[in-house]
Amino acid sequence: MGHIGTRKIMIKGLWEENPVFRQILGICSALAVTNLMLNTLIMGVSLIFVTSLSCVTVSILRKVTPSRIRMMVQTLIIASYVIIVDILLKAYLPDISEALGAYVGLIITNCIIMGRCEAFARNNPPWPSFIDGIASGLGYALVLLAVAFVRELLGFGTVFGYPVTPSDMTRWTIMVMPPGAFFMLAVVIWIVRAAGSKSDKKEGGAETAAR
Amino acid sequence: MELGTTAFVIFFAAIFTNNILLTNFLGMCSFLAISREVKPALGLGLAVIFVMTCTSGLNHLVYHQLLVPFGLEHFRFIAFIIVIAAFVQLVEMVIERYSPVLYVVLGVFLPLITVNCAILGVCLFMIIRNYSFVQSVAYGAGGGIGWTLAIVAMGGIREKLAKAKIPTPLEGPGISLIIAGLMALAFMGFSGMIQMQ
Fold first, then answer.
1. Cβ A76–B78 below 8 Å, yes or no?
2. Which secondary-structure segment (H or E) carries A25?
3. In the prediction, which pLDDT does B141 show?
């Protein structure tokens, strides 16, 4: 796997097979943490950390794991990394750890990680698996940040906690409440799929694969 | 009496005002995947109610009787996952042996439940909110019923929707999310009815 391989995997994770809007995976936590950008960022970083390292571990152990119990092994590997993240957050960012609450623990059941372990890391050497994990995590984090950006901007009038809109603008309280998350994610998926199908038609199949 | 009342309030709050699916976004993956028709949605819902009620009680015991006395709180994620997986496996075997009818209804859904984040979510929430045993079981039962209510309603809507004309990029997950958003709006009408502490 040379330089080209690495780049291809990155593009695949970020766009072509983006976990959130292409495969509709892992949206449980995608929606819950997106009312503030800061929380979303921390969640995204945690997820990238867990995904990449569990993919590496699964890949290293791929030859010695009996395939019958591989799900259990993968879950335990993921859970161990989530525990590390949980302890780190509690130690260094107690406020954010409080705000994220149970959702840090729910990274374990996030289907993205399990999906990547099953689909890629199980049959590939450690380095490509690592890149694949980072790419999927990054693709997930970017979509989350986009959703959080709109929700925080319209709901609180701020970006990362800094006020940007004029103070007399009416806040869209609905955006920071649960229904806002559903609507925003639907709109993001709509836009991306519409854009995707258009460019697919223009460029044709081969071009799409290279992009 | 005090304990009984709060458990009652938690039970109803978990169904309506704090619906685990529509306000906490838990169990979305299977919600979107299995909600195309009412019947399978109901089957999955029943399995979730059963497993969620039992595992919330079990995990409460495991956490407070086993992990806390030994100072192993950080291992709760692993412990909970193992309890849930083992319980699901056990239920599957028992049902297969004693009730083939029930196995036909629930059997295919049981393995799916291990990775349903709503189950783990309920267990983690009950630890964070410091519920007692009775309250945890009430929360588990309420959460399961609330989840079932949402997925069955969704199945009903999507059955009708199959005939509707929808913009192509919005088909599938997109429109489901918008419906879920509308349902969340409707469920917000319940807020204020019960206050969850």
1. yes
2. none
3. 93
